[in-house]
Amino acid sequence: MRRYLLLAWVMAGLVAGAVLHLGGQAEAATWIWSAAALPVAAHVAAGLLRSLLGGRLGVDAVALAAILGAVALGETAAAAVIGLMVAGGEALEAWAEGRATAALTELVARAPRRAARIAGEAIEEVDVAVLRPGDIVLVRPGETVPTDGVLEDEAASLDESALTGEALPVMLRRGAALRSGVVNAGPAFRLRATREAGASTYAAILRLAQEAAAARAPLARLADRWAVGFILFTAVLAGGTWAATGDPVRALAVLVVATPCPLILAAPVALVAGIGRAARRGIVVKGGGALERLARARSVLFDKTGTLTPGRPRLAAVDADAAIGRDAALRLAAALAQGSTHPVSVALVAAAEARGLALPLPESVAEVPGGGLTGSVEGHTLMLGAEGFLHAAGLDPQNGFGVAAQVAAAAGSVAWLAVDGRVAAAFVMADGMRQEAPRAIRRLRALGIRRIVLLTGDRAAAAAPIGRALRLDAVLAGQSPADKIAAVRAESAAAPSVMVGDGVNDAPALAAADVGIAMGAHGTAAAAEAGDVVLLVDRVDRVAEAIAIARRSRRVAFAAIALGMGMSGVAMGVAAAGWLTPLAGALVQEAIDVFAILYALTALRPGADEAAQGALSPEAGLAERQHEHAGLRQIADALREAAERIGPAREERARLAALEARLRGEMLPHQHEEERALYPEAARRLGGQDPMAPLVRMHAEMESLVERIGTLLRLGDDDASWRAAVPELRRSLFALEALLRLHLTVEEEMMAAVSAEAPRHAA
């Protein structure tokens, strides 16, 4: 407010003096202009004194000298214009910073202060500060969730745009974890608090925002260092002009146009604009210093679990004794797994439910931590767990079991099932890559990141496939927290480095890196506190976006400084030649200041290398098609099982006919809808001649295989014909399975590329 009052004072004095001057009252106008300019000089002198006490030479020294020199030489109109330039520059800076920090300001403004707590049958309005874990809170339509908690009602529709930048509301079900700061976009619902409001997600974000606003950027300090040299250059040029011409007014004109407002204002405005842009995308940057370091990054190190992978195991494959069958084995294992909350147990139950298997209740369930489960289901004695768990009971999973399971056990995580004292099935668990991870890595390469490393405490057998699939430069597995620190420091010694992680064990490495980026949406508080950048949206591709925003902000800052000071340098030469009076020079410098600050504000707009696609329109049907992918993967499993089971006898013919009907009823309509609505819109986003041609060709090949399978089934209407058709039928089933799996993987990656805001439940 003080800046705006000072600006109003100078403007009023300048106008009043002009009116008096035009009315023939030249002496009175001189006094009014002096009165308008001298308070600005006092304000600048106070700021200069504070800078000197802080150990810095304030760059406002030139402006102070110009105002006092103009008053002393009787150029009071020029003094008033210089005062207007200084006061106007500060007011413009305040407006620009307000515009640039709008996203952070909005976060603070939206902080919930009151909550409706349910006490018995009554609802009481309380301060959010009094909420405690276990309290039941009513969140009404349009209200902000006041604290972290668990959804108590059947469903809730939430607007998470303030935290994540995701425009579309998210539908969550009973038991889902809710974060404070999101907005209820549907009917009222009840929330059971799990944290105090002061320890909630939103409170942590507000602390990060305040740190971001308070930090001073290295680029701003660099501007100060440049300003010292500029002051010396200005003093030499102005003094030399005076000495050479004997005209102090010409020297004053040099001082007037040399006022370094572009150098003072452009860098911080551009960096704060970048921080504001990042905040709108769910990326909280802890200050301009972190943003400037991020812009210089040349290597990136990723943690694996929870960062490049979701951190939640899923069932990737089942290998079972033919006497039991895969579905029956999964049903028994999932039934027993209902008695445990271990992530593998949760994954088995989810996989069984996805296949529509009815799960009986287990009995006498006992869990050995880190080992497995024992219990009984429908009269069968079951054991479910790791290989060592079965070994302890005298069972050897590797002895005579399927080769596929043995290979999987060597490379990944396998849960073994024993039924009535006999090993019966192996469930291969995988923590697959995040859908957006390949695109994130490619974008980092496009941004000029020279080295990308996977740094994980997991086994080499689990980490190596991720490294191969993402084409990383190195995979460092089996790393302890101390090993991670050493690896980060080694990378930082070669080039500015970024470490990306989410867990407690990643916090030391995040702190050791030049820039630590924490996956804050579902990561730990320790990682968020240690990181310089926190991602509020659970997408690893925001790492590349953060770097792109940082680089654009830094480029804009340097460009604004260079353009502003370049124009000032030209104006100084013109003034030294005697072609600019002090008054005209003041007007020219005012225009240069406005230009430099407005140019710095262009950092609010995305650059060519950071343009992100928004969500595809609902009419494209992306969410529906990707939701259907889970069913298509089940069809792929059924194709493989059918190909393995088929034999010279015709008992499999009826089951194959049912599978063919499922292909025609699920897979082919799915492909038709993609080509009708989804692919045309995706093609417009991708550009080029025919970007969806490979996927359409895959559709055609799969349709041909379905037709071939149908023809072979019709030809095998007797034993002889069936035996003749079996080899080709087996080849067709395996070919369709392989092509379907490849198609789903390629399609999901392409859809991630055209829609940066892909729905969270997409497969």
Task: Output the structural class.
Answer: alpha+beta
- Strand tally is 22
The CATH superfamily of one domain bears the name: HAD superfamily/HAD-like
From the 3D structure, determine the CATH topology of one domain: Rossmann fold
Text of the CATH class of one domain: Alpha Beta
β-strand percent reads: 5-15%
Global Rg: 34 Å
* Outline type: elongated
Strand order of the largest sheet: 10-22-21-20-11-18-19
The number of distinct helices, counting runs of at least 4 residues, comes to 27
Mean pLDDT: 82
Q: Give helix % range.
A: 55-70%
* Reported CATH architecture of one domain: 3-Layer(aba) Sandwich
Q: How far is the N terminus from the C terminus?
A: 52 Å
Q: Which stretches are poorly predicted, pLDDT < 50 over at least 5 residues?
A: 757-763
Largest sheet: 7 strands, mixed
Subcellular location: Cell membrane; Membrane
InterPro entries: ATPase_P-typ_cyto_dom_N, ATPase_P-typ_P_site, ATPase_P-typ_TM_dom_sf, ATPase_P-typ_transduc_dom_A_sf, ATPase_P-type_domA, Cation_Transport_ATPase_IB, HAD-like_sf, HAD_sf
GO molecular function: ATP binding; ATP hydrolysis activity; cadmium ion transmembrane transporter activity; metal ion binding; P-type zinc transporter activity
Catalytic activity: Zn(2+)(in) + ATP + H2O = Zn(2+)(out) + ADP + phosphate + H(+)
